[in-house]
From TrEMBL, chains A, B:
Protein name (record): Methyltransferase
One example of a Gene Ontology biological process annotation: methylation
Keywords: Methyltransferase, Transferase
Enzyme class name: transferase
Pfam families: MTTB (PF06253)
Organism in which the protein naturally occurs: Rhodobacter viridis
E.C. designation(s): 2.1.1.-
Record carries keyword Methyltransferase: yes
MF terms (GO), sorted A to Z: methyltransferase activity
Gene3D superfamilies in the record: Trimethylamine methyltransferase-like
Assigned protein family: Belongs to the trimethylamine methyltransferase family.
Listed transmembrane segments: none
Domain of life: Bacteria
Length: 517, 517
């Protein structure tokens, strides 16, 4: 039930408060420290039942690791390897995951933006991976590196976003083989917040690690996470060489990855909530255990991507009740294993930024916050099942994260007695608008969203009957006009550019995904 | 963690399931029986602190009852009455509220639609009170009695709506003085679900009670709630004669009212979450206590209406984080007093059915469900801060209630072992689409919203690029085409019509609110 974080200098009287209120405020919020209790939808017996079922899968069914190095690694630590299928004894799994840290601090290149992580601490990270964008004119088209830079700038300026992530949109004007270099540089250059690292292949991940070493220094990385990779599993029960080699690049340098089974509920899991969680849990555990085979004690994050599949059309769905339930349950499992966990936030399946997108997104955010997730990914821009990132939705989602942040902090209690005196002062039938407690507290008392119009219809019509998409795009343009690039050391900048130039010469510009060089 | 309610007769093979899936299904869901745990944002010490502060307000500041009968009643039971201000000793308050039942069964005219209520049981009730509608063509205009009938029909056909409420929209083509008669008749006639009773004056409430007696019989009402009234408080700390006289009409006949302080957070409460809840709690307790002065043991519901006020514009706001927090806290207080409680659901402040409306509405619904509310009012149609009821939003909200219902039930566990066998059958790298467990369970496994489009953009474009508003209006038209009026006994129908005709002769057609006759 912590205090609300209010910067110093706000107590300078009404005039000062008004001036500050009018000024744009891009200061990043600290990592969310949760006051909201977690939603424990399962009794301890249910948690034990999921755990036992997952462990039985790992022992009896096994997991396919389509990767010779991983298979050799597993043999080395005594797992039962039969062909590509690895059978993992529950004692071995428990022993391995026991060395995953339960919390750490993410280092940002601006130390003021470093972030405590795990336990009650959580961070919001924008969406990534969209092959299309809806741009500043709401036109759906292929993105460029400039579009990616735009999203990195917007993430930099959004107080509740703690990271710029990586390829928010795919820069289609760069060949696939070189893309990871430009994406990483854009994250590093346009913001001093933390960011994610590309895992499109082992070699690409190595390049990202090298760029992080240039930015932070190898010694720092040996003790401190500076970025995060994502490794998707192929449900049911398969991990492939691309993901595993990227995992090795990150974990061997002590950098965390999200171990993310990719769930299309009903298609690649059983058509039932609890059994789907049991399968996903087995998959996540197998990858979490492997991170510790790579490097004992390295940080790692229990991940997943969740959608349910329409059994009428085969389409993935967002914001459905089962996704909420699975989030609550996965949170309980991650806490049971004492490992930080990742989820996806504010997901929409709508083709435009219509009411469907709003409902689905807010359903997801509430699930995530009540579930107590730590790494809250895809927190801005996601629509059309991830096929596009919308500029309009991005800035609204960023404000939704600020609202979710406020809710998840819980109420303040420090002014309780003073405010109860106000009740006595005002008395029955009075009003509070002029009371000193109101004047002193109104700015932080009740969140006032910029992106939501709460005026009367008459005023709204007088202002041109503007719906949220147009309001949000206008706001995004204004934000970009106010953008100031955070200073990056000139020597580091040059070293990063030199590295990119060298790798572009070394890597053939073949336009195919996952090219290994 | 109950089973999902599946009607009998669905186990008739794939063909039968498909036929049923294509057929419209208007069967009402049972009252929601919660599996979702309640969000306990306050420690017991915080609950005690709110309780103590509220009791101190009732003792020291007092509450204004602007009503001579209520003042006389309070004197009779030993309260400290000074002018219009009633000071309530905490022992008296605790003694009075202790006789409020913690649960009961609502009787509907179709006994199959009667509803257990209170404790873990909750019901969804549509919005009421809108002076405008957005109609089947999305045109914003004044409503008529025919429009009200349309909404009553839609509520009747929505499985997750358990009530038709009362004046969902105001029938502007009826004079105010006669309106309560036509509203009540429309609720009774167009659906056999439960409904709400008008409380626009004491005499109007008496007319509603008489109509309920015609429909259910006086003896039934003596033992069983058949309707619900709403009594708004004037925060801070005032109850007026209109509301109190309506309260007496309901409570004296053993019918429950919602005791609803009307909170504009920051304007008529302190600008802080916990103190606002303490004031609201005092107000609710004073009215709940008065229900038991009227009739000891009569059912009553802890109510409230919550919005926060923009300190920039004075506008009320919906879906803000503080509204979520206050819902969690009010739920805890109601459970502390062991009284069922009411909240408001799916509220929007947008002028059209845009993404803002979606975000705000889903924020509200999640707060309400995690807070554990029993009487979940305003569950369909509310936009523009209640100034209009939208047909499009009504049918989408009704489906959202069905999704919220599914989430709040919690996961099923009855198929866990069978599904874990499916994991073994499918194995790593397989898929579940053809597995018998999937075929047997997919219909109830994952909610498939009708109102949300999850198809590819190519398919969506091929189908005309229809956004949710147009989809929802088309669905509403189809529903209305399929509507069948539930049978009402001809003698009762005639008696109701005779009563209305008589009262229309007796009550002058003066077009003013709260006319007392």
């Amino acid at each position: 039930m912590g205090e609300l974080p209010i910067r110093q200098g706000r107590a300078g009287g009404r005039g000062a408060r008004r001036a500050l209120r009018e000024a744009p405020d891009f200061a990043m919020l600290p990592a969310l420290h949760r006051g909201l209790p977690t939603c424990e939808i399962m009794d301890p017996e249910h948690v034990a039942r999921i755990d036992a079922a997952s462990m039985a899968i790992l022992e009896d069914v096994g997991v396919i690791f389509r990767d010779p190095i991983a298979l050799a690694d597993w043999k080395r630590v005594g797992a039962d390897v039969r062909g590509e299928r690895v059978h993992l004894d529950r004692a071995l799994v428990r022993q391995l995951i026991s060395t995953i840290p339960s919390s750490w601090t993410y280092r940002a290149r601006n130390p003021e933006k470093s972030l405590p992580f795990g336990g009650k601490n959580a961070i919001f990270v924008p969406m990534t991976g969209a092959p299309f964008l809806r741009d500043l004119d709401d036109v759906r088209r292929w993105p460029t590196l400039n579009d990616l830079a735009m999203f990195h700038k917007l993430a930099h300026m959004s107080p509740a976003l703690h990271s710029t992530a990586h390829h928010i949109v795919e820069p289609m004007d760069k060949v696939v083989a070189h893309r990871h270099l430009h994406i990483t540089y854009s994250s590093m250059k346009h913001s001093d917040k933390t960011f994610m690292g590309m895992t499109t292949s082992g070699k690409n991940a190595e390049d990202v690690m090298t760029m992080c070493e240039i930015l932070f220094g190898r010694d720092v990385m040996e003790t401190t996470p500076v970025t995060t990779g994502n490794c998707n599993g192929n449900s049911p029960l398969v991990w492939d060489e691309t993901m595993l080699s990227a995992m090795r690049a990150f974990c061997s340098r002590n950098q965390p990855v999200l171990c993310s089974p990719f769930v299309l509920g009903g298609a690649n899991t059983p058509a039932s909530v609890a059994p789907a969680v049991a399968q996903l849990n087995a998959e996540a555990l197998s990858a979490l255990a492997y991170t510790q085979v790579i490097r004992k004690g390295c940080p790692a994050i229990y991940g997943h991507y969740l959608s349910t599949v329409s059994m009428k059309s085969g389409a993935p769905m967002a914001g459905t009740p089962e996704i909420s339930l699975m989030n609550f349950m996965i949170g309980q499992m991650a806490r049971f294993y004492n490992v930080p966990w990742r989820t996806s936030n504010l997901l929409g399946g709508a083709k435009t930024f219509d009411a469907q997108a709003g409902y689905e997104s807010a359903m997801t955010m509430n699930a995530v916050l009540h579930a107590g997730a730590n790494y809250i990914w895809h927190s801005a821009g996601w629509n059309e099942a991830g096929m596009h990132c919308s500029v309009a939705k991005f800035v609204v989602d960023a404000e939704m994260c600020a609202m979710g942040y406020r809710m998840a902090e819980g109420p303040r209690w420090d002014d309780f007695d003073v405010a109860m005196q106000a009740v006595r002062d005002v008395g029955p039938g009075g009003h509070y608008l002029g009371h000193p407690h109101t004047l002193e507290n109104f700015e932080r008392a009740f969140f006032m969203p910029k992106m939501f119009d709460n005026n009367s219809i008459e005023q709204w019509q007088a202002e041109g009957s503007v719906e949220i998409t147009a309001r949000a795009l206008e706001h995004a343009k204004k934000l970009l006009g106010d953008y100031e690039e955070p200073r990056l050391d000139a020597g580091i900048d040059e070293a990063l550019r030199d590295f990119i130039a060298r790798r572009e010469r070394e890597i053939p510009a073949v336009d195919a995904l996952n090219t290994e060089h």
